[in-house]
Amino acid sequence: MATSTRSRAAQPRASYRCSECGWTTTKWVGRCGECQAWGSVAEAGGAPAGRTVAAPVSTPAVPIGAVSAEQAVHHGSGVPELDRVLGGGLVPGAAVLLAGEPGVGKSTLLLEVAARTAARDQRTLYVTGEESASQVRLRADRTDAVHDQLYLAAETDLGAILTHIEEVRPRLVVVDSVQTVGAAGIEGVPGGVTQVREVAAALVRVAKTRGVTVVLVGHVTKDGSIAGPRVLEHLVDVVLHFEGESGSRFRMVRAIKNRFGPVDEVGCFDLGPEGIRAVADPTGIFVERHHGRVPGTCVAVTMEGRRPLLAEVQSLVAQAGERPRRTTSGIDGSRLAMVLAVLQQHCGVDLSQRDVFASTVGGAKITEPAADLALAIALASSHFMTSPPTGLVAMGEIGLSGELRRVRDVQQRLAEAARLGFEIALVPAEVGKGGRQRIVDGMQVVEVSHVRRALEFLNPTRSFRVIEGG
């Protein structure tokens, strides 16, 4: 009896491990107690490993100055806007993850990159796991992406993909998508945490050992984050997010992680029936040129990464019913509520009993606080039915007391507005220098310290006073 008790006590207890963060527990749970991820806890296989002994090295260690950096030189992808985000182009041996919502244009963009690479007489392998080869060929015919050096394979098995890489010996490999590929001998279905981790690790190893650039297409969850284990983003060198509204042809590629370049760059594209094309100057999409002065409009200058973009803000203030409505499109609703409160409290512009609609032109999405001043001008202009001067741009963050706070890269924003022909710019003033006017690149720049001063500049006949208690 005592012997059986000791044998049971000597048996090792089962251990469960989270594939996302590595948290361990002695019993299975549906949700990780550390990172709160669902379905990521699985039984850890095998007994604890013993002490690791020394093993032969693959290459000897050398001084860092003796390591050649030629293999990490960027090579253009043929798509300038994508090269801008990548920091110059694709790097041999790099693994790139491109994620985005369904239908946003990921496959179309990468097929264009593959065709441009093949056109430079470099073998390219495009592996599709979501479509048949004939479906990809139809898209290639439509977008003029057929080339002799572009090889196409429809595979969902990791071993078969590795065989294709051995036989074709490409310079660029595109896998669409990593969630559809399965590895034999690994538990789980394709797209599961274990499978995605193994498939991505194998393809990254191929990229590093053969000097091949590997681009993986990734899915996103309903909240917009990249599907699969978090380790997927750690394995690759570059993580790009492809985004765009379903009702707009405009698309943007944004770098989330980049070991070879900046992470504050964006690339702009136009997705149409004939394919996808780079948009080097996207301001024309977001700014509507009016023949005359129009109430309720103002142009804001925002920064997308290191690129200044001009976007037109429109507003409509109308008579409300029983319950006033606040509707936005492309503008953060909380910023609209804050600007309305500041206008009421510090400028005497009471819109609490009015319907307020605010939107942007061309499907632009503005999240930067620098557009607060343009939004306030558009709201006041629509309320009083007075038109801002022609050729006006405004930039500035509004504080809760109505003061205008300075924004970054003011000179770069002004240079872009002047290049596009705008004549007047309202900018936040430096401390104690409100009301100063100067000429920058042929454009009149007016510095204002408070949103009330900006409204008085636009409408000198009206006095915007603080209401009682403000």
UniProtKB/TrEMBL annotation:
Domain called RecA family profile: residue spans: 71-220
Motif RadA KNRFG motif, residue numbers: 257-261
Domains as described in the record: The middle region has homology to RecA with ATPase motifs including the RadA KNRFG motif, while the C-terminus is homologous to Lon protease.
Top-level taxon of origin: Bacteria
Name recorded for this polypeptide: DNA repair protein RadA
Keyword Hydrolase assigned: yes
GO BP annotations listed: recombinational repair
Residues that bind ATP: G100, E101, P102, G103, V104, G105, K106, S107
